[in-house]
Amino acid sequence: MALQVSLSTFARIALISVDSAFLGHLGTSSLAAASLASTWTNVPLAGVWSGATALITLCGQAWGAKNGELSGIWLQIGLVVVTVLSVPVMIWYWSIGYVLEVSTDDAEVVQLGVRFARILSLSIWPSLVYACVRLYFQSMGIMSPVTVVGTLSIGVACAANYMLIFGAFGWGGLGFDGSPMATVIASWFQPVSLISYCIFYKKMHLQAWGGWDLSAFTPDRLKIFMNIAGPVAANSMVSNLANSALTLVAAKLGSDVIAANAVISGLWSLLWALFWLCMLVQPIFITGYMIESLEILTSSVLAAMGEVAVTAWVSSLSVWFIELPIAYFGGVTMGLGFSALWYGVCTMEVLKLATFSFVLSRTDWTEMAERAVKNMEATSDSDTGVEQESLQFAMTEGGNTPGSLAPVVRSPAAQELMTPSGRRRQWDQIEDGTLLRSPFFGRTPRSDTSFSQA
Question: Transmembrane stretches, by residue range (predicted)?
Fold first, then answer.
């Protein structure tokens, strides 16, 4: 399961890197323009995209409580929200020229960047729809189709990039414009393929879908969705805005540094002219990503519990008050150059990891489980039984599930698991000493022999 999640995530990220791979052959200006445009257009898009990850928490909790219809309702809410928000995101894409002019004095980079962003705007809505549908199926443990579609989309992106940039069968191609157009094709391929296979062909959605129902869009549900999605989206936008501002520091060091930063960030070492610039930061880059991997794990646990406010504030403040100052004063003022940018990243990730670990160590897991039960909207003839099962699910799986990456699988309704909340419930019910406290004896009356044996 973890392998499938990793492959699907890799496939999603690879689409961005494919553009860099092909544009690198067109020259430094083309790669720098695409990198700079992607950096600034990514600010609002990543915000909406990150907000959609609330579905993995909400759909996963509903699915764990055997409330499949509620999972479908959360998907509907997510689709409507991202569709509405895609309009201002598209407006931002078409207005990117003003920001690029501030970022660099290179007129060619600005011109190419504007063209890149405007063509790429056609991929906004399908990519957001795919994110929602992908997370919806992921919350039910359906990962194989997502992995296959993601892997195939890499091949589609590579083939489209080659044909549209360089041409084929006697056609000369579109050149630079072919790269964003290829990304648009791959972005539409993903939702169309996934929906066609999982929904229209296999009908996998029927186990967690009650049909479109506008009456399900209640204020309480919208509030729950926004309470989780809002801080995550805001954190993503603020963090990406800071990273975009970081490119201003790179721009002051030259267009070659902009392009080199795009290469090292995407793990593409394709331009021999930029080879030595990439090697300057490779050790720092590896160290930073090792620390970030642990930070992502801890922040995902917090996000899965709905503690998105913690991750939002810590990430935002650390980016603006640690990463950016170190990058600017180190890279520009002190003259440390390109490496200062990644020293700032390493320092920021260490602080975030320490903070998230401290918060997790002070977490009241019982309170987190009760909050998850409330969001599940579970109903049953036995409220105690459903609450107990829901708490078990939340504690044994929900708290250990990365909020934006890992799937949530239905727990079997088997024997009671001795979670902290389960122990607390057993002790709370022993008010008169009539029940055994040991979980191995169940809920049998306490006998005199049990006292003597004790």
Answer: 44-65, 77-96, 116-137, 149-169, 181-201, 258-281, 326-345
User: What are the residue boundaries of the structural domains of the chain, listed by start?
Assistant: 2-272
Top-confidence residue, 94 or 435: 94
Contacts of 264 (CB under 8 A, 6+ apart): 278, 281, 282, 285
pLDDT by residue (tens digit) across 46-69?
889 888 888 888 888 888 878 888
d(CA 96, CA 101): 9
Q: Max Cα separation, the chain?
A: 93
Distance from chain centroid for Cα 177: 28
Which H, E and C letters describe the chain, residue by residue?
CHHHHHHHHHHHHHHHHHHHHHHHHHCHHHHHHHHHHHHHHHHHHHHHHHHHCHHHHHHHHHHHCCCHHHHHHHHHHHHHHHHHHHHHHHHHHHCHHHHHHHHCCCHHHHHHHHHHHHHHHHHHHHHHHHHHHHHHHHHCCCCHHHHHHHHHHHHHHHHHHHHHHHCCCCCCCCHHHHHHHHHHHHHHHHHHHHHHHHHHHCCHHHHHCCCCCHHHCCHHHHHHHHHHHHHHHHHHHHHHHHHHHHHHHHHHCCHHHHHHHHHHHCCCCCCHHHHHHHHHHHHHHHHHHHHHHHHHHHHHHHHHCCCHHHHHHHHHHHHHHHHHHHHHHHHHHCCCCCHHHHHHHHHHHHHHHHHHHHHHHCCCHHHHHHHHHHHHCCCCCCHHHHHHHHHHHHHHCHHHCCCCCCCCCCCCCCCCCCCHHHHHHHHHCCCCCCECCCCCCCCCECCHHHHHHC
Supply the pLDDT for residue 276. Answer: 39
384, amino acid identity: T
Per-residue pLDDT at 77:
93
- Round to whole Å and give the CA distance between 154 and 135: 19
Q: Are 444 and 429 in contact (CB under 8 A)?
A: no
Distance CA 396, CA 195 (A): 31
166-216 pLDDT, tens digit per residue, is 888 888 888 888 988 998 999 999 999 999 999 999 888 888 888 888 888
